[in-house]
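Q: Give me a protein?
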Amino acid sequence: MKKIFVSLSLLMTVASSISFANINNLPDPGVEEVFKQEFVGAENVSWSRQENYQKATFILAGHRMIAYFNEDNELAGCIRDIFYEQLPLIVMKAIDKKFPKAEFQEVREITNNDGTFYLLRTDLNNKKYKVRISSDGNITDIEKLKK
């Protein structure tokens, strides 16, 4: 009998933890409306919180995206995973000039109040780099990463 009671108590604790965990990840109703207007057709939406932002991770037009909303339920910025070939030509030319023959594992387009820029990660000559480049082709930061 004690085993049944302990098992039921454990089951109830786990079930209530799961339900409360899901409540914490639900977005504010206002931000959900803004999201639906900004990203019509978004699929597989999941919500979380990151610092003072509500974060929506989703798929739109076949690309993984992340949108951040501030405390006023306004879109603060978004990140979109893209393919290298989808970069603007001026950005591709600047990258090819600085990193000839490099292959990029991660290419992200980041849009916020400061504008649009791109973040790329590459392995070149057994070294890893993270490159930040503006939409006009200016490389603003090159960071050597530890392996």
